[in-house]
Amino acid sequence: MRASPTRTFWITAAATFIAMLDVTIVNVAIPNMTTSFHGVSLSSLSWVINGYTIMFACLLVANGQFAELFGSRMVFLIGTALFTVASLAAAVAPSIEALILARLVQGAAAAAMLPSALGLLLTAYPPQRWTAAIGMWGAVASVASALGPLLGGTLVDAVDWRVIFLVNVPIGTLTVLCGLRMLAPSPERPTAHKPDLVGAALLAATVGLLVLGLVKSGDWGWTSTKVIGCFLATAVFALLFGLRLTRQESPLFEPSLLRARAFASANGSTLLFGFSFYSLLLCSVLFLTQVWHYSILQAGLAIFPGPLMSAVVSAPGGKLATRYGQRVVIIAGSFIYLAAMVWLATVPSSTPDFLGAWLPGYMVAGIGVGLVFPSQASAAAISVPPLRFTTGLAMNITARQLGAALGVAVLVSIIGSNALTGIQSATLADFRGGFTMCAVGISLVILATLPWRPFLIVTPISEPAPIEVQP
Predict the structure, then answer these.
(1) Which of 109, 175, 184, 210 is least enclosed, having the fewest CB within 10 Å?
(2) How far apart are CA 439 and CA 410, in angstroms?
(3) This model's pTM is above 0.90
(4) CATH T-level fold of 254-471
């Protein structure tokens, strides 16, 4: 029996909102966390962001497989309940180690919430309404990401950084209670692929060791045995992960999808753009609070115009992609975003100038984000067979989060791991290096998408691809 589509949408939307909110809401709280954890370096604080991101990325597909095997409803409710408990644990964390552990659990839970939410939507809505339902669901995720810096800045400035995690507790609790009563049982598929937890662990080890080497390079030194050891271990785990993909009967990522040039290119482009965008958020917060000496609330307000512009242009950008093809919109949006990064890397000085130096660059950056991210997601989704639609979206989100983890790690290595501690303050030149890094990331997106490479979607799409009902 099909559940009420409207109730299913709002329940899954609530869980999606808090999962995506926690991707961006923490960035503005990083400076304030130093008041609770004295002497903790930025390299350690960065794991509050990256711990969540890495677990989110590496377990997303595996949890999607769990949802197919045991039913989306059960995985969704367990994931949301675990996310709520982990949020409470993060809010009361007595040490940086306890906070990072809570964030790791949060990320794992979020990875269970999103694919199961999508599965519940596809079960509740008839196939002819899937596109509209997924579009609305994606809009909720975009709004959550856009509100993160502003809501985080407001709460941290008014109370404390711990409140940003307490926000999740009533929403998560209400979502679980409503889900228990209103969500219809999801069909189990005993023949579905068994979750590849070993593959997920290998991927997490690969990314985690690479991030560790990058963020600790300032403390340990690039030529230290610890950093070199991290990079060598990264190579070993990456090789093991690659071997598992080719030899495992049901690997974490389907090799057939990765061999599809359009799909692989869309996800590679997404990873690079995630690298640039999420490092931009952290770089912006640190620049505004350290160089311009903004309060956390002022920093959140200064960042908000960018996500706001992104939300405004995402719908028109989707229509343009449908008419002219994803490649055209991605390239246009990337050039717009690149112009904003060049502006931010050169125009703002040590003297605060929000209207003249900051606002133009950030609004232009938001336009670029609103054009690029949705087009990359749709390019990934329509480049896979209809029955693999959910898997395609999950892998695209994974690519975005992996890019985010790597971007934050590289940023920390550029601006200095001791920033915010009083031991060493990042300078204007350091932050200009950070914005330049964001410009390099988007430049790679452009190079990977230009027409001389047969990447992404070349021909315009006049209508959505037909959707088949999954048996």
Answers:
(1) 184
(2) 13
(3) no
(4) Growth Hormone; Chain: A; (1.20.1250)
